[in-house]
Amino acid sequence: MTGAATILWNEQLRQYDFGPDHPLSPIRVQLAMRLVEDYGLLDHPQVTISADTPILDDATLERVHRPDYVAAVKRASQPDADANAEARYGLGTADTPIFENMHAASARIAGASLTGAREVLEGRARHSVNLSGGLHHAMPDRASGFCVYNDAAVAIAWLLDQGLERVVYIDVDVHHGDGVQAAFWDDPRVMTISIHESPATLFPGTGWPTEIGGPTALGSKVNIALPAGTGDQGWLRGLHAVAPALIESFKPQFIVSQHGCDGHFEDPLASMALSIDGLRMAAEAIHAWSHRYAGGKWLALGGGGYEWVDVVPRAWANVIAIASGEPINPKTEIPDSFREYVKESMGRVAPYRMTDGYEPWPKAWDLGYNPADPVDSAINATRNAVFPYNGLVPDSFGGF
Ligand SMILES: [Zn+2]
Ligand SMILES: [Zn+2]
User: Fold this and answer.
1) Where in the chain are the domains?
2) Ligand 2: distance of its center to the CA of 177 in Å?
3) pLDDT confidence of residue 59
4) What is the mean pLDDT of the segment spanning 232-240?
5) 3-state DSSP call for residue 223?
6) Pairing of strands 127-130, 298-301
7) Counting ligands in written order, which one lies closest to the CA of residue 304?
8) pLDDT tens, 248-262?
9) Which helix (H) or strand (E) holds 222?
10) What is the pTM of this model?
11) Fold for domain 5-390?
């Protein structure tokens, strides 16, 4: 089924909901799916919507999470749960408040990501997309940063259990993909590559280039930490200066990616300056790398993104369009039906076009770099930290 894409989506995935005042509202995925639908992508014969989103059993979750943590999530999911009783597990905080049926809602998102991985691994789909997933901050033993169960890590652990020996995880969310890194810290079978705003200025305060993996996995954990305010040019330059060389040398059998779009300049929770156009180009690059280096085996996940109307629907419609082999021309107008829906349901004016008007042309690293430039120096720190462990020369092209 070359080219076929499976999109994991059903109304039950909306039950992962921390309440009306929380930034990670299920309206984000709802609006993205609505825009995808209004573009007619779901009518494309290559696109399948799958509602196969099981609530994963404890044993599957516990490949990543500690049993006492899963038990704590279940206790916090009861209707009469004490909001503060599981604080040591990161539950009941302002970031990750408890809600009824939290366990089932969270385990279902992980089930959707696992189904996506399975559809691709078993050849029924070329690519899969779960926009409700990408909950990359969840730790083996605690909830963190709006994330309860780490669906990305659970899907990767499942792939390893099926016998895969090399999986690459790429995380373009503005925050460090700390939970996925932690889950496979000392596992050389998983290379994690996270590009994010520097931990000096942003949650979760990790993701330094010097975090390179445990003693048996040195150089398989990769962190590109860029200064706050970095725009498309520097961000894409960093991604391209680091990721493809490492992926080529690692030879993954499968790529899982997290497409948090909170690096956008309008996002209220972070301070990067990416446009929809830069985010789209990153998704296009990851798609191309999946074909070039992993036989097309690609599971794409959602993630952060807190500008619900201007940013998330366009960023994630692009991810689905790219995975479906039907990329949307950036100059395309947003369908009137979508704009009317947003006006009626949110009382807001939706954007008019799929572009923010940018056409980034990031300078290739092999043309040289400037050690005095803060972005180049951040990129260089990552190359120096991990390239030698992967048989690559960090400074092969020299400065200028
Ligand atoms: Zn493809
Ligand atoms: Zn984020």
Assistant:
1) 5-390
2) 8
3) 98
4) 98
5) strand
6) parallel
7) 2
8) 999 999 999 999 999
9) strand 221-226
10) 0.97
11) Arginase; Chain A (3.40.800)
